[in-house]
UniProtKB/TrEMBL annotation, chain A:
Species classification: Bacteria, Pseudomonadati, Pseudomonadota, Alphaproteobacteria, Sphingomonadales
Binding residues annotated for S-adenosyl-L-methionine, in chain numbering: 43, 74, 95, 136
All copies of domain Methyltransferase type, residue ranges: 72-164
CDD domains named among the record's database cross-references: AdoMet_MTases
One Gene Ontology term from the biological process aspect of the record: methylation
Catalysed reactions listed for this entry: a 3-(all-trans-polyprenyl)benzene-1,2-diol + S-adenosyl-L-methionine = a 2-methoxy-6-(all-trans-polyprenyl)phenol + S-adenosyl-L-homocysteine + H(+); a 3-demethylubiquinol + S-adenosyl-L-methionine = a ubiquinol + S-adenosyl-L-homocysteine + H(+)
UniProt keyword annotation of RNA-binding present: no
Designated name of the protein: Ubiquinone biosynthesis O-methyltransferase
Free-text function comment from the UniProt entry: O-methyltransferase that catalyzes the 2 O-methylation steps in the ubiquinone biosynthetic pathway.
Recorded family membership: Belongs to the methyltransferase superfamily. UbiG/COQ3 family.
EC number: 2.1.1.222, 2.1.1.64
Pathway as given in its UniProt record: Cofactor biosynthesis; ubiquinone biosynthesis
UniProtKB/TrEMBL annotation, chain B:
Source superkingdom: Bacteria
Official protein name in the record: 2-octaprenyl-3-methyl-6-methoxy-1,4-benzoquinol hydroxylase
Domain (FAD-binding): residue spans on this chain: 5-340
Cofactor field: FAD
Top-level taxonomy: Bacteria, Pseudomonadati, Pseudomonadota, Alphaproteobacteria, Sphingomonadales
A single BP term in Gene Ontology: ubiquinone biosynthetic process
This protein's UniProt keywords: FAD, Flavoprotein, Monooxygenase, Oxidoreductase
């Protein structure tokens, strides 16, 4: 239990404390966050394809987010924030666990990346505006998903894009993410509570209630041969993209 | 110094090509080499030459090196493989619209073209001569300390120092290796009759003898490069031959097919061996070229394997960096390792098999070889596979090898 994690409305204190304990291993590709490292390439491919299509960006552009502001909510130790910064964005990363933020700050500094890291919940960003808002594998950990989505939506600049990802609540996701992944130690035990998983329909509802329009839903699949990959099957884990 | 995306140790034919290919795609790279390029390039023709297969040639063209090699390469229109001077031979000849199997270049011309391209490349830092005295790699990055005290920091280290790669040794990467108990004697010759753009691979039980066509020199003399393999125990005697005797021996082995022969370069030699690194990546490290795998030079595939490494690694890094990934990201290196391992081992194993098959003395073995050659000649698909191998076109082809930018 972590005192500083308790003061943000959207955050469940035990959740923040759980991830805070894992902070030191975040950047070790063979450590407890190995799955997240493996998840990064398809996740970034999806983000890249989305911004190319929405903002008319050339495929060979190395820094397609130059001149844009991005917020990653629930940024952990910066596994997504750093690539967004390398793509040229002015990135704000926020996380409920101060340990994560400390690791993220330290790591970015060593990489020569200027990223604005803050400890806190999405509430702390109220009043600011971003071209790209991401929150990956976070909503299944928050206290009130609908309110969380509404707060994310409020951060979106005109012509902005919001990309969320989360596990679906299906028998498959329970088997894969709890029974197998946590059971075999591929993901640390206690990472997920299946009952809090959100279905695409529920998430679409929250997003529409927040005044946004869903433009894309894409599945994230896993197979031992191909690893994590983008697919049209939403039953395990999925991305949802929305604009105003 | 600005932090580099990629630090390349070794500025030879493969290392420099990688630096150019990366810079062409906007990736910041530094090439570090202890040799002084001006001294290396000022020296005369050393007799060494390389066959650049057609796929790697398309890459050199795509990254701007080809423009500096106009008229320097001799197209290989056919490869003639024969068992000794027997009249039966296996001829690999692509159909007219398929283009050459590759081009032969003097290594010196390749070095000059690469150097000219590299000096003009934006975003490519050349540190030559510069000797690395300390290399530090960890999860956060790479730091190379030079003998003069300068430090170069970056995200990914490349070992491109050739077969004795100290970077590979330092990483504790083991190599499968064996020696062929043979020595390759390298020299270039002028000869009376034109070679007709044909490369000859003549297999003697004492070892293969390759005649690789070069372009005529300024005086219009016809030229070829010789790769002459001799048993290690005969090597000192062969190497000690006076030039005149060497020429006479070479003519004899060529069966007079190119007429009178004269040496036009110094002779050099090196022991032949096979080595194949157990893995080609480590924390923030990738190996390319001979640092990763050295093969028998008989099929002229050595530099081509290196160029295929370059093409695959460049594609992996460019695609990764467009996603914002750190060039030293473990997922990217894993992809490079998967992509290259099987291909390089297949080429190494097949050239090794070829050499061993032809190295067996005796009448029965020769009959088997003749039947084998005849069978390959008659079997279209098998021959197609050999041809694709010679062109460097097997395996999933990186975009650069198709002549396309990434």
């Amino acid at each position: 239990m972590n005192a500083s994690a308790q003061q943000h409305g959207s955050v469940v204190a035990e959740e923040a404390a759980h991830f805070g304990k894992l902070a030191a291993e975040w950047w070790d590709p063979k450590g407890s966050s190995a799955m997240l490292h493996k998840l990064n390439p398809p996740r970034l491919r999806h983000i890249r394809a989305t911004i190319e299509a929405q903002w008319g960006i050339a495929p060979e552009e190395l820094r397609p987010l130059t001149g844009r502001r991005a917020a990653d909510v629930g940024c952990g130790a910066g596994l997504l924030a750093e690539p967004l910064a390398r793509m040229g964005a002015a990135v704000t990363g926020i996380d409920a666990a101060p340990e994560n933020v400390a690791v993220a700050r330290h790591h970015a500094e060593k990489q020569g990346l200027a990223i604005d890291y803050r400890a806190g919940g999405v509430e702390a960003l109220a009043g600011e505006s971003f071209d790209l808002v991401t929150s990956m594998e976070v909503i299944e950990h928050v206290a009130d998903p609908a309110a969380f989505v509404a707060r994310l939506a409020a951060l979106l600049a005109p012509n902005g894009i919001m990309i969320l990802s989360t596990p679906n609540r299906t028998p498959l996701s329970k088997l894969a993410m709890i029974t197998v992944a946590e059971g075999l130690g591929m993901v640390p035990k206690g990472t997920h509570d299946w009952r809090k998983f959100v279905t695409p329909e529920e998430l679409t509802g929250h997003v529409e209630a927040a005044g946004l329009r869903v433009i894309d839903r894409k599945g994230l699949g896993f197979s031992p041969a191909a690893g994590f990959h983008l697919s049209d099957n939403l039953t395990l884990d999925y991305f949802l993209t929305a604009i105003r | 110094m600005e932090r580099q995306d990629v630090i390349i140790l070794g500025g030879g034919l493969v290392g420099l090509t990688l630096g150019i290919a990366l810079a062409r795609h906007g990736i910041r790279a530094a090439v570090i080499d202890p040799a002084d390029p001006d001294k290396v390039l000022a020296s005369g023709f050393d007799g060494r030459a390389s066959a650049v297969a057609s796929a790697p040639w398309r890459m050199l063209d795509a990254i701007g090196v080809g423009a500096h090699l106009q008229g320097r390469g001799c197209p290989i229109d056919a490869i003639r493989v024969q068992d000794g001077l027997s009249p039966e031979s296996l001829i690999f000849e692509p159909s007219a619209d398929d283009g050459a199997l590759g081009h032969m270049f003097e290594n010196r011309d390749l070095r000059i073209a690469l150097d000219t391209t590299a000096r003009a490349a934006d975003g490519l830092t050349l540190l030559r001569p510069a000797r690395p005295v300390d290399v530090h790699r960890d999860l956060d990055g790479v730091r190379v300390t030079l003998a003069d005290g300068r430090e170069v920091e970056g995200s990914l280290l490349i070992g491109a120092e050739g077969r004795q790669s100290p970077t590979r040794e330092a990483a504790g990467i083991t190599c499968a290796r064996w020696s062929y108990d043979h020595v390759a004697m390298i020299a270039s010759i002028a000869h009376e009759k034109p070679h007709g753009n044909v490369a000859y691979e003549i297999f003697y039980t004492t070892g293969p003898f390759a005649i690789l066509p070069l372009v005529d020199d300024a005086e219009g003399r016809h030229r070829s490069a010789l790769v002459w393999t001799v048993d290690k125990k005969h090597a000192p005697a062969m190497l000690g031959l006076p030039d005149r005797a060497y020429q006479a021996e070479a003519e004899k082995r060529m069966g007079g097919m190119l007429g009178k022969v004269s040496l036009i370069s110094p002779r050099s030699s090196y022991p032949l061996g096979f080595h194949h690194a157990a893995r080609i990546t480590d924390t923030r490290l990738a190996l390319v070229g001979d640092a990763a795998h050295g093969i028998h030079p008989i099929a002229g595939q050595g530099v081509n394997l290196g160029y295929r490494d370059v093409a695959a690694l460049t594609e992996v890094l460019v695609e990764g960096m467009r996603l914002g990934l750190d060039p030293g990201d473990a997922q990217l290196l894993a992809r490079y390792q998967r992509w290259r391992s099987l291909d390089s081992f297949m080429v190494a194993a097949s050239t090794d098999g070829l050499t061993r098959l032809f190295g067996i003395p005796g009448r029965t073995a020769r009959t088997v070889r003749r039947i084998g050659l005849g069978a390959v000649q008659r079997l279209g698909p098998l021959k197609g596979r050999f041809m694709a191998e010679a062109r460097g076109e097997t395996g999933k082809l990186p975009r650069l090898l198709q002549g396309m930018a990434i």
